[in-house]
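[job 0417] fold request received: Peptide deformylase
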Amino acid sequence: MILPIVGYGDPVLRKMCEEITAEYTDLKALIANMYETMYNAYGVGLAAPQVGLPIRLFMIDTEPFSDSDDLSPEEQEQLKSFRQTFINAKMLKEEGEEWGFNEGCLSIPEVREDVFRNEKITIEFYDEDFNKRTEVYDGLIARVIQHEYDHIEGILFTDKISSLKKRLIQKKLQNIMEGRTRPDYKMKFIAKKGR
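[job 0417] inference complete; emitting C-alpha coordinates
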Protein backbone atom coordinates (compact mmCIF):
# COMPACT_ATOMS: atom_id res chain seq x y z
CA MET A 1 0.00 0.00 0.00
CA ILE A 2 1.38 3.39 -0.98
CA LEU A 3 1.50 5.77 1.98
CA PRO A 4 1.36 9.57 1.73
CA ILE A 5 4.75 11.21 2.23
CA VAL A 6 4.73 13.95 4.86
CA GLY A 7 5.78 17.37 3.56
CA TYR A 8 8.24 19.88 4.96
CA GLY A 9 6.90 21.74 7.98
CA ASP A 10 5.15 18.79 9.62
CA PRO A 11 6.33 18.48 13.26
CA VAL A 12 6.94 14.71 12.89
CA LEU A 13 9.95 15.49 10.68
CA ARG A 14 11.59 17.28 13.63
CA LYS A 15 11.09 14.54 16.23
CA MET A 16 13.86 12.46 17.77
CA CYS A 17 12.40 9.06 16.90
CA GLU A 18 11.73 6.21 19.33
CA GLU A 19 13.21 2.72 19.19
CA ILE A 20 10.85 -0.16 18.44
CA THR A 21 10.78 -3.87 19.27
CA ALA A 22 10.33 -6.88 17.02
CA GLU A 23 6.71 -6.95 18.25
CA TYR A 24 5.92 -3.53 16.76
CA THR A 25 2.42 -3.76 15.30
CA ASP A 26 2.40 -4.98 11.67
CA LEU A 27 6.12 -4.26 11.26
CA LYS A 28 6.55 -6.49 8.18
CA ALA A 29 3.56 -4.84 6.48
CA LEU A 30 4.88 -1.37 7.37
CA ILE A 31 8.29 -2.18 5.89
CA ALA A 32 6.69 -3.55 2.69
CA ASN A 33 4.46 -0.45 2.43
CA MET A 34 7.41 1.88 2.93
CA TYR A 35 9.41 0.17 0.18
CA GLU A 36 6.39 0.40 -2.14
CA THR A 37 5.98 4.09 -1.24
CA MET A 38 9.68 4.79 -1.84
CA TYR A 39 9.71 3.04 -5.23
CA ASN A 40 6.48 4.79 -6.29
CA ALA A 41 8.16 8.17 -5.59
CA TYR A 42 11.43 7.12 -7.32
CA GLY A 43 13.33 7.53 -4.05
CA VAL A 44 16.51 5.80 -2.92
CA GLY A 45 15.68 6.05 0.78
CA LEU A 46 12.70 6.57 3.06
CA ALA A 47 12.47 7.04 6.83
CA ALA A 48 9.44 6.37 9.04
CA PRO A 49 8.92 10.05 10.00
CA GLN A 50 8.39 10.74 6.29
CA VAL A 51 5.25 8.60 6.47
CA GLY A 52 4.19 10.18 9.77
CA LEU A 53 5.70 7.69 12.24
CA PRO A 54 8.26 8.90 14.83
CA ILE A 55 10.09 5.56 15.02
CA ARG A 56 13.71 4.58 14.27
CA LEU A 57 13.14 2.83 10.95
CA PHE A 58 14.43 3.61 7.48
CA MET A 59 15.25 1.76 4.29
CA ILE A 60 17.54 2.27 1.33
CA ASP A 61 17.84 0.93 -2.20
CA THR A 62 20.68 2.58 -4.13
CA GLU A 63 19.99 0.79 -7.44
CA PRO A 64 18.88 4.04 -9.21
CA PHE A 65 22.39 5.48 -8.66
CA SER A 66 24.07 2.47 -10.28
CA ASP A 67 23.80 3.69 -13.89
CA SER A 68 26.03 6.74 -13.38
CA ASP A 69 28.94 6.89 -15.86
CA ASP A 70 31.07 8.60 -13.18
CA LEU A 71 31.36 5.32 -11.25
CA SER A 72 33.66 2.34 -11.65
CA PRO A 73 32.05 -0.99 -12.63
CA GLU A 74 32.64 -2.22 -9.04
CA GLU A 75 30.84 0.82 -7.58
CA GLN A 76 27.98 0.41 -10.07
CA GLU A 77 27.58 -3.25 -9.07
CA GLN A 78 27.70 -2.40 -5.35
CA LEU A 79 25.00 0.27 -5.74
CA LYS A 80 22.87 -1.99 -7.94
CA SER A 81 22.67 -4.70 -5.30
CA PHE A 82 22.39 -2.58 -2.12
CA ARG A 83 18.99 -2.78 -0.45
CA GLN A 84 18.75 -2.65 3.33
CA THR A 85 16.28 -1.97 6.13
CA PHE A 86 17.65 -0.23 9.24
CA ILE A 87 15.82 -0.53 12.57
CA ASN A 88 16.95 1.27 15.77
CA ALA A 89 20.09 2.45 13.97
CA LYS A 90 22.88 4.05 15.95
CA MET A 91 25.70 5.88 14.17
CA LEU A 92 28.96 4.76 15.78
CA LYS A 93 31.44 6.66 13.63
CA GLU A 94 31.56 9.14 10.74
CA GLU A 95 35.03 9.56 9.29
CA GLY A 96 37.07 10.45 6.26
CA GLU A 97 36.95 13.62 4.23
CA GLU A 98 33.69 15.46 3.75
CA TRP A 99 32.53 15.60 0.14
CA GLY A 100 29.67 17.41 -1.54
CA PHE A 101 26.78 15.88 -3.42
CA ASN A 102 23.53 17.36 -4.70
CA GLU A 103 20.80 15.96 -2.42
CA GLY A 104 17.04 16.04 -2.53
CA CYS A 105 14.34 14.66 -0.26
CA LEU A 106 10.89 13.19 -0.91
CA SER A 107 9.50 15.38 1.92
CA ILE A 108 11.00 18.49 0.31
CA PRO A 109 10.10 18.15 -3.39
CA GLU A 110 11.64 20.44 -6.01
CA VAL A 111 14.50 21.46 -3.70
CA ARG A 112 18.04 20.18 -4.29
CA GLU A 113 21.23 21.49 -2.71
CA ASP A 114 24.85 20.42 -2.29
CA VAL A 115 25.40 18.84 1.12
CA PHE A 116 28.78 17.86 2.58
CA ARG A 117 29.02 14.56 4.45
CA ASN A 118 31.78 12.23 5.65
CA GLU A 119 32.84 9.55 3.18
CA LYS A 120 32.79 6.60 5.60
CA ILE A 121 30.48 5.49 8.43
CA THR A 122 30.16 2.70 10.97
CA ILE A 123 26.56 2.00 11.96
CA GLU A 124 24.84 -0.45 14.29
CA PHE A 125 21.28 -1.53 13.50
CA TYR A 126 18.77 -4.35 13.36
CA ASP A 127 17.74 -5.69 9.96
CA GLU A 128 14.11 -6.48 9.13
CA ASP A 129 14.42 -9.91 10.75
CA PHE A 130 15.71 -8.20 13.91
CA ASN A 131 19.25 -9.51 13.58
CA LYS A 132 21.70 -7.06 15.16
CA ARG A 133 24.45 -5.90 12.80
CA THR A 134 27.38 -3.50 12.78
CA GLU A 135 28.52 -2.47 9.29
CA VAL A 136 30.97 -0.06 7.67
CA TYR A 137 29.87 1.75 4.49
CA ASP A 138 31.46 4.38 2.28
CA GLY A 139 30.73 6.49 -0.80
CA LEU A 140 27.18 6.99 -2.02
CA ILE A 141 25.78 4.22 0.20
CA ALA A 142 27.20 5.95 3.29
CA ARG A 143 25.74 9.26 2.10
CA VAL A 144 22.22 7.89 1.61
CA ILE A 145 22.39 6.20 5.03
CA GLN A 146 23.52 9.48 6.65
CA HIS A 147 20.63 11.35 4.97
CA GLU A 148 18.04 8.82 6.20
CA TYR A 149 19.68 8.52 9.62
CA ASP A 150 19.31 12.29 9.99
CA HIS A 151 15.55 11.85 9.50
CA ILE A 152 15.23 9.62 12.59
CA GLU A 153 17.22 12.25 14.51
CA GLY A 154 14.83 15.05 13.43
CA ILE A 155 17.35 16.60 11.02
CA LEU A 156 16.68 17.58 7.38
CA PHE A 157 19.25 18.08 4.63
CA THR A 158 18.25 21.76 4.47
CA ASP A 159 19.71 22.14 8.00
CA LYS A 160 23.14 21.40 6.53
CA ILE A 161 23.26 24.20 3.94
CA SER A 162 24.43 27.80 4.32
CA SER A 163 22.11 30.50 5.64
CA LEU A 164 22.31 32.21 2.23
CA LYS A 165 21.10 29.07 0.46
CA LYS A 166 18.35 28.67 3.09
CA ARG A 167 17.12 32.18 2.31
CA LEU A 168 17.17 31.42 -1.43
CA ILE A 169 14.93 28.34 -1.01
CA GLN A 170 12.59 29.89 1.60
CA LYS A 171 9.78 30.51 -0.92
CA LYS A 172 9.91 26.89 -2.13
CA LEU A 173 9.78 25.63 1.47
CA GLN A 174 6.80 27.92 2.16
CA ASN A 175 5.03 26.54 -0.93
CA ILE A 176 5.53 22.99 0.36
CA MET A 177 4.10 23.90 3.79
CA GLU A 178 1.10 25.51 2.12
CA GLY A 179 0.50 22.52 -0.14
CA ARG A 180 1.28 24.44 -3.34
CA THR A 181 3.80 21.88 -4.55
CA ARG A 182 2.52 19.04 -6.73
CA PRO A 183 5.00 16.18 -6.99
CA ASP A 184 3.94 13.09 -8.94
CA TYR A 185 3.53 11.02 -5.76
CA LYS A 186 1.08 11.07 -2.86
CA MET A 187 1.90 13.71 -0.23
CA LYS A 188 0.37 15.05 2.97
CA PHE A 189 1.00 18.76 3.54
CA ILE A 190 0.78 20.72 6.78
CA ALA A 191 -1.22 23.39 4.82
CA LYS A 192 -0.50 26.34 7.11
CA LYS A 193 -3.55 28.47 7.72
CA GLY A 194 -3.55 32.25 7.80
CA ARG A 195 -0.68 34.56 6.86
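[job 0417] notes: DSSP finds four helices and seven strands in the chain. The helical segments are 27-40, 73-80, 139-152, 163-177.
[job 0417] exit 0
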